[in-house]
Amino acid sequence: MTLSISNTDKSWIEVADNSDFSLQNLPFGIFRTQNLSPRVGVAIGDQIVDLQSLFVLGYLENLPFTKDDFATNYLNSMMLKGKAACRDLRLRVYKLLLSDSPDLQQNEHHCAQILVNQSDAIMQMPVKVGDYTDFYSSREHATNVGIMFRDPENALLPNWLHIPVGYHGRASSIICSGTPIHRPKGQQRPNDSEPPVYGPSKLLDFELEMAFITFEGKPLGDSISTTEADDYIFGMCLFNDWSARDIQKWEYVPLGPFLGKNFASSISPWVITLDALEQFRIPGPVQEPKVLSYLEYEGDKHIDINLQVAIETDAGNETVISNSNYKHMYWNMNQQLAHHTVNGCDIHCGDMMASGTISGPVPESYGSMLELSWKGTKPLTLNDGSERKFLQDGDTVIMRGYCEKDGVRVGFGEVSTKILPAK
Prior knowledge:
- By secondary structure, this protein is of the alpha+beta class.
- It folds into two domains: 28-124, Fumarylacetoacetase, N-terminal domain (SH3 type barrels, Roll); 132-420, Fumarylacetoacetase-like, C-terminal domain (Fumarylacetoacetate hydrolase, domain 2), CATH 3.90.850.10.
- It is 17% helix and 27% strand.
- The strands form seven sheets. Strands 6, 7, 8, 13, 14, 16, 17 and 22 form an eight-stranded mixed sheet that branches. The protein has a five-stranded antiparallel sheet with strand order 4-3-2-1-5.
- The radius of gyration is 22 Å and the shape is globular.
């Protein structure tokens, strides 16, 4: 398909100027309503284009998809058709939504079948996550943690500037925005001179992250280069990697995160394609010392994504506590994927890889309560006058993200999760 997406094009569907879901975005997700079974949708303004209905009505002819690829609980079946097919699908939807395209807009009966109000939709997990890896790729975050818990003079561990550090997380507990979580329980050792105790975490925290989702990768034994990485990345979503700091501190030596991390991670429901993010790419930081050859890359591989974190109290009072940006990452997605597969590890359709906590250079841009309150020594004051060192039961953590350039906005919506008391 030769059609390309233009920043000046408009849709015949009304899209507010501040909408995350512009014609230039067109993210994919899974939704259902009271009357419709789960299916693939594309967001535009405050509407959803129902791809199952679009297919049945004949608007997706000559594309390599079947009805079953859209009448499904997850995007995986659609994604298995590959990047070229998904790109052509997004361009077909774009063409149908263009203001000067008569094919769909002049058929009121078809529009009524195809368009769904987002307010009537219930969003679901967009992908069936097979494997999940969490990286640790923000230099500011790693430095802050090193200062707090190790050596202020040598905050970064010796390997940090040489490899994108990561660990294999738990895919089963990744949940969609709107799904509440219970405060986790586990062992903690509040006082180093006393035995450990068991109970609900007292230091519950969020981690502001982004995640990318992969297409089917190469066979076991093969690797993906930084040059090839874009071909294996479907898109991105917001990611809140919950963390129980007291449980984590006691258990992470010598094998790393376990119960302090695997109880929940929350994601936003719309997956923004890598194609939609291309125009927001920017240069990354100079990496010194020079990385090994398999981690070298060409071009702009970092992305300018504005990020925000807010806490909403049980009474409904919201306070923005952090404004950060994905551009602050030291290691980019191409390097992360290249490092993940350099030993021959195979990735599969629907695998999810998170960035690690995203912290900027100033305190207002830190991506966790651990940093914002500096390990509880500098409590945050919310708009209602209450204070937070860490998160309380009844709090809802809301993360939002968007790119904006030359009058075009491509947003991620939000990931919102309420904390319930421990069971």
